[in-house]
Design brief:
The chain is mainly alpha-helical. The chain has 15 helices and no strands. The longest helix is centred in the middle third of the chain and has 20 residues.
Length: 337
C-alpha cells in the first residue's frame, strides 16, 4: 500500500493556501449576537487576530496548521511569512481584544465546542515551538477557553453526536492535547471522566446515518478517536472491540466508503471533502493504535489512505472549501511527531 506523506513540497503548498486567506476579511460568515446597535462592527474590529478565513474557527485552525508546518519544516519557503504573520498577530493587545470578546454575555456559547477545541489545539502547537513567545502571548485566551470547558462539561448531560461543529467528541479530543502540554491533571481527569460518562457504555455502533449531507466529521470515527486519545490502551481496546465489533468484516460498510461531493461551490456540500479528510485522520490514528498483529490495523490504514486520496486533491479551488480544508489535510497526513 502506497502511503501519502507530508512532504516539504506539499507542506509549502498547504501553507500558501492558508497564507492566502488568514488575513482575508471578506467574504465573512460572522457568528455574532448583537446586544445593541453598538455591537454592529466589522470582523476585524470584533476579532483582531482571527478575522480572516471566512469565519473565526477556520481562521483559528488555519493558524494552527501554519504553526504546525513551521515547527515541522522550520526552513521551508513560507517560514518567514508565517513568522512575520505571528509576530504581527500574536501580540498582547490583540490577544486581550480576543479575550474581551468572550466576556460578552452574548458570547457564552461562542464557537462551542468546535472553535474552543481548535483554539486549544493552536495553543498546544505554539507551546511546542522552541521559541515560545507566541504561545506565551496567546496563553490568556487559551486559559479562558480551558475554563469554558471546565465550567461547561459538568453541565452537559448528553453528548452531541452530529457530524458538524457541535460534535462534543471532537472538542474533548482537541482539549486533551492542551491539558497534557500544560500538565493540567485536573483537566485531563475531567476530560477522561466526561468521555467515559458520555461514551463509555456505547456498543455495536451501526453508523447508519453516515454520512449526512453536510457532515465534515464521522460521528462514529471521531468518537473512536476521542476515546483513543483519552483512554490508556488497556481500557481503549476493549471499549473499541465493543463499539465496532464487526470491523474486521468491513462493517459498518458506510465508514469505508469515501463521500461523494457534487458541488464544491456549495459550502455545506463541500463539507464532505472535509469528511473524507477527517475520516482519514481518524482511521490513521486508529490503525497506528492497534497492535501490529491485529488484522483491523491494515484495514484502518488502508481506509485512511483511500479517504485521503479522495479528499487531498480538493484543498484548493473554490473558497467554500479552500478557507478550511488544508487544516484537515494536515491532520490526515499526520499531525503528531
Amino acid at each position: 500500500m502506497t502511503t501519502t506523506r507530508l512532504t516539504l513540497e506539499l507542506a509549502s503548498h498547504l501553507a500558501s493556501i492558508a497564507l492566502g486567506h488568514v488575513r482575508r476579511e471578506y467574504p465573512n460568515n460572522v457568528d455574532h449576537a448583537l446586544a445593541g446597535p453598538e455591537d454592529a462592527r466589522t470582523p476585524s474590529e470584533l476579532h483582531p487576530i482571527f478575522y480572516g478565513s471566512y469565519d473565526w474557527h477556520s481562521c483559528v485552525h488555519s493558524h494552527w496548521m501554519l504553526a504546525r508546518l513551521l515547527r515541522r519544516f522550520p526552513d521551508f519557503a513560507p517560514a518567514a511569512d508565517i513568522s512575520a504573520l505571528f509576530d504581527t498577530q500574536f501580540v498582547p493587545d490583540k490577544v486581550a481584544a480576543e479575550c474581551a470578546y468572550f466576556t460578552r454575555p452574548t458570547a457564552r456559547g461562542f464557537k462551542r465546542p468546535y472553535g474552543w477545541g481548535w483554539l486549544m489545539k493552536l495553543a498546544t502547537e505554539l507551546a511546542l515551538h522552541s521559541d515560545d513567545r507566541w504561545g506565551c502571548n496567546l496563553a490568556p485566551l487559551a486559559e479562558i477557553i480551558a475554563q469554558r470547558f471546565r465550567d461547561f462539561l459538568p453541565l452537559l448531560t448528553y453528548p452531541v453526536r452530529v457530524g458538524t461543529h457541535f460534535n462534543t467528541a471532537f472538542g474533548l479530543r482537541m482539549a486533551a492535547d492542551y491539558a497534557d502540554v500544560t500538565k493540567d491533571e485536573a483537566l485531563v481527569k475531567l476530560l477522561r471522566e466526561t468521555g467515559l460518562r458520555w461514551y463509555g457504555e456505547d456498543s455495536d455502533c451501526p453508523a447508519w446515518g453516515e454520512p449526512s449531507g453536510d457532515d465534515f466529521q464521522s460521528s462514529a470515527l471521531i468518537e473512536v478517536e476521542c476515546m483513543r486519545r483519552l483512554l490508556p490502551p488497556e481500557v481503549f481496546l476493549p471499549w473499541f472491540d465493543r463499539f465496532l465489533p464487526r470491523l474486521i468484516e468491513r462493517k459498518p460498510a458506510a465508514l469505508f466508503r469515501p463521500a461523494t461531493v457534487t458541488d464544491r461551490t456549495d459550502g455545506k456540500i463541500a463539507h464532505l471533502d472535509g469528511l473524507n479528510l477527517s475520516r482519514a485522520w481518524c482511521w490513521r490514528s486508529l490503525g497506528n493504535a492497534l497492535p501490529a498483529n491485529d488484522g483491523r490495523r491494515t484495514l484502518a490504514l488502508e481506509a485512511a489512505q483511500n479517504h485521503l486520496s479522495v479528499g487531498l486533491p480538493h484543498t484548493a479551488g473554490d473558497y467554500m472549501g479552500e478557507h478550511w480544508l488544508a487544516s484537515f489535510a494536515v491532520l490526515a497526513l499526520g499531525d503528531e511527531d
